[in-house]
Structure formats: structure tokens, C-alpha cells
Amino acid sequence: MEEMNSQELSLETPAKDVFIAPSIHEGDIVLGRSYTHHSTVPGVIVENPTIECVLGVDEAGRGPVLGPMVYGLFYLPLASHRSLLAETHHFDDSKVLTPTVRSSLMQTLCTPGTDLYQRCGWATRVMSARDISAGMLKPAGTYNLNEQAKDATIELIKEVFAKGVNVKEIYIDTIGMPAVYQKKLERIFPTTMITVAKKADSLYPCVSAASVCAKVTRDAALEVCYQSYAAEGEIEEANTAADGWGSGYPSDARCVTWLKGNLDPLFGWGSECRFSWSTAKDMLETKGRGVKIQWPMADDDDQEMRVTDFYKAARGEDEEEEIGELAGWFGTPVPEDIF
Description:
Elements: H1 6-12, H2 26-31, E1 35-38, H3 43-47, E2 53-60, E3 69-77, H4 81-88, H5 99-109, H6 115-119, E4 121-127, H7 129-136, H8 145-162, E5 167-173, H9 178-188, E6 193-197, H10 200-203, H11 205-231, H12 241-244, H13 253-261, H14 278-286
Parallel strand pairs: 2-5, 5-6
Antiparallel strand pairs: 1-4, 2-3, 3-4
Helix pairs in contact: 5-11
């Protein structure tokens, strides 16, 4: 990916006092599990299920080597689309808003009694670094990041329809070629007007709001990951993710320094790291920081390998007795003639 300048890195770095939204499931994040969170369907939609709604989808954290990629979805009555989001609350692309402003907007959205809480619904899909890498590093049939992202988007939208929300318009920030992706979505959701566009987060307020949900959730998830190291006493100087590994992007010096300083030669890093990224792979494989392991290969004639093939057998009576540690663990065999 392209190098990010200092201003871009600053906007991608989590706020030091980031709002911890309900979309943060600490147990899943620490264990490297992907999960989905949905807000409650807003009251105005529950009271009038026929009300026409607009829905937007965007992601945060596509390029970093650390932390999850998060897909955000946002919906509200079509009549309130621009007036509530753009004019009243000034939602914009999360990469343009400062971390503090993003966090504040998310907190307002999650606070009962506010106009955003009463009229808007949202959801996130947290795609863990571990699961992203597992898909991309499959020995056969690689599950690439674009396909993972498209599947996450489609599932989020289906789940909103399943809640009874009358979605009439959908706006999505593109993955790949907009026209190709849009046709795919139109086949899945044929009764809905769908627009897939580049920079949709700057053009459509519902996509801007979705990007804020995604970015604040990712920021908080990064903080949860970082604090798991603090709980184990493995970090001392930096108290927050912003001070420690920064934005998590490969072009961020804080991130690279943290990776180098916290690399385990056998296991690498924890579930917060995307091992499929070249930054991590290079440190482990080509720069000699990791332990190289040679896995035993079965001969072509062998149907399968047995665990006992790796044990050292006891020698005969005429040879010097030499029993492997595992082979003699439960004692040595007794000859039949003893009976």
C-alpha cells in the first residue's frame, strides 16, 4: 500500500480516550474471534415497519498489519437522511474527522434519548486479524481479503432485512470495480436500489456514518488488544495503543518498532497481528528473527504417518541399550518367552 504521511497517520491513530461502544466484545477481541454486533432497531422504525429506510456500508482498517478490519452498517428513515446526518451532526468520511470527533459522534449515537439513538440503527462486523490471515494463508483455495469483505457486507445487509427493516436504498463504498460489485449486489437484493461508488463515504451521509461506526469500533478494539499486553505486564512505558503501536499501519514507525520489540521467535505475535501481511512475514522469515521449523514429510510410498514413527525404538539385546525418552516413558516391552 502507499506510504501514509504524518497527517494521515494521525487521523488513523486511535483517540487516547476513545469511546468504548457496545460493539466492543472484549472476550472475542482478545481471543482473536470475529463477531457481529447489531444495535436495537430504532423506535421510529419499530412503530412503523413500513417506513422507507436508507442504508450505508463502509469499512475501517483494511491496510493495517495490526488489529481487525471492521465493517460498519448504518440505516435510518430515508426522509431524515441528509437533514439529520449531514446538516445536524455533520457526519463525514471518518478519515477526515479527527479521532475525538469520531468518538463523540459514536457516543451520541449510543446514548438513549438523543435524536441519533431514536432514529438510527447500526451494526458492525469485526473481522479479526487471525481470521483474515487464516483465510489468506490457506494452502489451497485462498480466501482473499476482497471476498472476505464482500461476504461480510452481504451478511450484514441480510441481517438487517431479517429484522424487518424496510430498506429501499443502499449505498456502499466499493471493493474493486464498482459496476461489477453493484451487479452482484443487485442480484442478491433485487428489490432495492443499490449504488456502489468510489469515495461513497464522502458522498452519502449514511456511508459516512457507517464509516464512523467502523472506525471507532476498530480504534477501541486496538485499545483492547493493547491493554491485554498491559494486563500481563508486557508493556510499561506506553499506556495506550496510540502511544504504543500507533495506528497499526506498516508505514507507522511506532507500529514497526513495536513489532520488532515484541516478536517471539517461535510464535511471532498474538491474535492482533495479520501474519499474512508482508511486514509480518518478512520479519519472521526473511530477516532471520523467527525460528525456522522443518516439518517431517511422509514418503510417497507411505499411506500415512504414525506418531510412533517419531519415537526412537529400543535396540536389540546384542546392541548397546538406547531407549528414546518417549519410547521408554511407560517402560520397555516384556519378551513373550518370559511367560
